[in-house]
Amino acid sequence: MLVMFQNLRVSNSSKLQVSEFILMGFPGIHSWQHWLSLPLALLYLLALSANILILTIINKEAALHQPMYHFLGILAVVDMGLATTIMPKILAILWFNAKTISLPECFAQMYAIHCFVAMESGIFVCMAIDRYVAICLPLRYPSIVTDYFVIKATIFMALRSSLSPISVPVLAAQRHYCSQNQIEHCLCSNLGVTSLACDDRKINSINQLFLAWTIMGSDLGLIILSYALILRSVLKLKSAEAASKAISTCISHLILIFFFYTVVIVLSITHSATMTVPLVPVLLNVLHNVIPPALNPMVYALKNKELRQGLYNVLSLDSKCH
């Protein structure tokens, strides 16, 4: 079905359907945007290397073969997928001026971004449930959060994240793009692409809002509920040391959640409002897809004692090999 976008089509209004989009990059700074390629490339390399290192540590250290670290490993894979969905094309735009992208490629990228963002949100929910059971129901933790639970939760989140965003590229592909094909962005965002349509795109905006509330909204609601119950349980602990230990296991998770959902909310506001500086939402959109993948492993490595120990062990193993 996507093959039809590779050819020019004649519409009822006798105007040609565009065959490709042009990603202009960062609006307002086209003349010097190539200077952004170095920090973005470094962030991308950091995201890939840090997440590969996390996966290596979890794989090599038997002590880390636990549900919490399985979820962290899945998060690392999702992070690498999210960053790789957008960064090679952005760097190609900045380095080689490769701004053109076919309609099928654009819609495929749009779909992949939605999938990975939804999957990351879903994994945060799984990690919040894991911490809730570990702190509030410690005696039942081994029987509830098993390897089988991790597999079932991951499959459910993967199915949800791959099926629910299908409507986004399908509806975008149904719009008619008859004249404008320059996107003031460096990736194929749903609203950025459909803003070029010659026909009514109200259904696209409604669908985007609906998905944001049903997926991200419900995920954030479950996470807030989990941590509210965790906080209530921690406040009941008589030992200050036990309370401190319980809270410390959640800190790294909360930092990542705060950054992830804050940027999502800010992006929603900037896209809905009329922005005098369009660079802000574009830059935020790009950074939201590359900073969490780079940040997540470092936050966990710094805040998690077992992971730090695993890092030391892996590095010492590597040094012995040499």
Observed structural traits:
disordered N terminus, 322 residues, mainly alpha, globular, 3% strand
How many DSSP helices? 11
How confident is the prediction overall: mean pLDDT?
A: 87
Give the low-pLDDT segments.
Answer: 1-15
Q: What is Rg? A: 22 Å
Beta strand %:
under 5%
User: Based on DSSP secondary structure assignment, what is the total number of beta strands?
Assistant: 3
Helix-strand category: mainly alpha
How would you sum up the global shape? Answer: globular
Q: What is the spatial order of strands in the main beta sheet? A: 2-1-3
- State the helical fraction: over 70%
Largest sheet: 3 strands, mixed
CA-CA gap between termini: 53 Å
Order of helix and strand elements from N to C terminus:
EHHEHHHHEHHHHH
Outline the structure in words:
With 322 residues, the chain is mainly α. Helix content is 72%, strand content 3%. Strands 2-1-3 form a three-stranded mixed sheet. Helix 2 runs antiparallel to helix 10. The protein is globular. The model is unreliable at 1-15 (pLDDT under 50).
